Description:
The chain has helices spanning 3-13, 17-25, 29-36, 46-56, 60-68, 84-109, 116-144, 146-154. The protein has 159 residues and is mainly alpha-helical. Helix 1 (3-13) packs antiparallel against helix 5 and helix 7 (116-144) packs across helix 8. The longest helix is centred in the C-terminal third of the chain and has 29 residues, at 116-144. The radius of gyration is 20 Å and the shape is flat. The mean pLDDT is 87.
Amino acid sequence: MNLRQAYLRMIKAFPGGWDAMCGALGMSRDSLENRIYERKGQDVGVQTAMLMQSFTETTFFADAVCALSGGTFSKLPSVEHISNEEIGVKFHELYEELGMLSQEYREDTKNGSINPREKERFNALVDKIHKTMDELRALTFRVYCHETKRKTMAEGEQV
């Protein structure tokens, strides 16, 4: 996903679409369109993009920035009380995703070539696995690393 796609997805996700987003941002539709479509040398600034993301409670902007940087965005779970059972559930999600990746690999490579659609699906699965692994790591550290617990508690987060 590129930045323009992220902006358009956030507008679509916002109740009321374009007109409501323009109102929330305090700009005209022409002004917002000029920024999104980079007309007249304008663009969407980081602050505006972050506001749009906040208004829509999505991560589309973060996803696009990470993709453009060669990575993936992983929103860490925000849970107050984490149990070993929840960590086990994450492991099972990871196993399922690895199975799906293995199946996708077999199907995509059986003809000796991977087409753009197959590449996109394969990349999406790999990104999903990375996200699950990051969540698994964060949950594990929150439960079992005393220094992580102390730090998050000092920052006001309940563990």
